[in-house]
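Researcher: Here's a chain I'd like modeled. Treat it as a single chain, no partners, no ligands.
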Amino acid sequence: MEDNRKIIMKLTNTMRRTGYLLSVTTRGILSYQEDFLIGALGVLLFHFTNLAAVYLVFDIAGPSLGWTPEQAVFLMAVSNLRFAIGGVFFWGLFQIPTLIRDGSFDRILLYPASPFYTLLCKGADPIGLIDIIFLTVALIWSASTFTALSLILVLQFVLLMIIGLVATFGFTLITISPSFWAVSGNALPDIFRLFWEFQPYPVKLFPAGIRCILTWIFPVAIAVSIPGSVFFGQMRFWGALLIVAGISALDLILGLLFFRLGLKKYQSVGN
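Model: Modeled as a single isolated chain. Structure tokens:
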């Protein structure tokens, strides 16, 4: 009983600390209101043109791409929504290569909290909230055009998407961890973002070699395409769950392992 009380108190203190650090970061960004408004307008314009382009591509190509325009917009909105949530809470992790290169990572190590926790809090971006609102509206609109939906399919889709988030998070750690060794530059995060451009398209469209890369090496297919195929009745749930859960667990374990090894091997560029 005493141990449970200590765990609850520790979690409560962590949540309070997290809320305080996030609020400080948010207030700092919002203090420049003009920059925030311009950034929010740019985000809205980017997502509108992005979703409109995907809709037109699938509308012109017709059924040859495997999904209707509304289905493509739905999956694109879901995928971008994942990144928007990550931008609000996890963007600090993507800054690790830059922080190591310019020596700023040393200051992160001086904080009383763990570097991992500190980076999560420093990465808060309120503009991501604009992302979330717009993409949620696009999600609702596209889903409203579907004629046959069941609660089971929705729950299966949500479960696969949540598990797929674990793979994305783990693989992000894998791509940024080499920065601890390659201080002068690490191109893996940029390569991962380039492969992410394949996300709105059914993975079965690509040759076998590309399908293997997008599924087993870069977890792009399990993030959107495989859950979408289950949602639209093109793939069995249990087979998809086995693939998504297996790759997610492997990516998470490897990501945490590489990140911890990187922290141990890190040598300050300021010395």
